[in-house]
Amino acid sequence: MVAAAVAALLPWQVGLGLALGMVFVPLMLRWPLFSVYLLVLSVPVQTVIRLPAGLTVTQVVMALTLLAWWAWMATGGHRKIVLPGFAIMLGFYIVVMILSLIVTTSYSESLAEISRWLVVLLSYIIIANTVVTRLQVLGLVVCFLLSGFAEGALGMVQALFGWVPESFYVGLGSADDASARAFGTIGMPNSYAGFLNMTLPLAIALAVYFVLRLWETWQAERSRQRAERRGRSAEGRRQRAEGRGRVAPSPSGEGGCAFVTRHSSLVTRHSSLASWPPRLICGGTPGWRGRCW
Description:
By secondary structure, this protein is mainly α. It is built from 8 helices and 6 strands. Among the domains are: 133-224, no CATH class; 248-281, no CATH class. Helix 1 crosses helix 2, helix 3 (32-42) packs parallel to helix 7 and helix 5 (85-99) packs antiparallel against helix 6 (107-130). The model is unreliable at 252-293 (pLDDT under 50).
C-alpha cells in the first residue's frame, strides 16, 4: 500500500518504471539469462519510452544486467569468466579509441561513442558466458527475430502510408515522387537500417537452413517409401514364385503329384512308374507346349 501511494505521487513514467522494476529485477537476479533476453528486446523501444535524466530503457536494462550478472557470478564460486577472441580484439579497439582522446575535438561526443562500444563489449562478454546451451541460444535467436520482425513491419507501414517527418522524404523531381524513409522506433533512418542489417542476415540464414532441413527430410522419407515399395514387390515376387513351385498331393489319392504351371491349368498326375506314360490334362494358353519328365 505504501509503495502504491508513493508511486501515485510520482510522474507516471517513474511510477511505471518502479512497477516494472519490482517485477523484472527479481527475475533478473534469479535468472541472469532473462536479463540478456530483456536487453535484446529493449533496443527497439529505447527511444519510445522516455526516462528521467535522459536515460533510455536499454541503458537501465544494461545496468540491471550488469548487477544481476555480477551477483550471479559472485554467488557461484565455480563460475569463471570466459573471454572469447573477439572480445579481446574489441577490447584493444576500445583502448585505441581511448588513446585517440588526446587529439579529439569533442570530448563529449568521443566519450559517448566510447561508452557505446563499452556496452557492446560488456554485452558480448555477458552473453558469451550466460548463453551456453542449445536451448538458450534458440531463445536468444527468437528475441533477435521478434525484434527485427516488429521493426520491419512498422517500417513498412511508415513507408507505405508516409507516416514519417517531412525531412525523411528523399527523391528527385516533385514532392509526389519523393519516397518516405522509415525509421521504426529507432528514431533515425540510418540507425534503423543498421538495426535491420543485423537481424536480416540471421533471418535469411535460418530460413535457408530450415528449407534445406525440410528438403533433406522429404528426400529421406521418399527414399524410405521407395525402399518399402521395393521390399513389398520383392516379397510379392517371392511368394508368387513359391506358389508356382508348390507341390500339392494328388487328389486321386494314388500317391502321385500335381504340378500347376503359371501359364495354364496343366496338371500332370502319375501314381507310379508302372503307370508310365503319365496322364496329362492340359489347358489354358493356346499353343502352349508342355513336357512332363
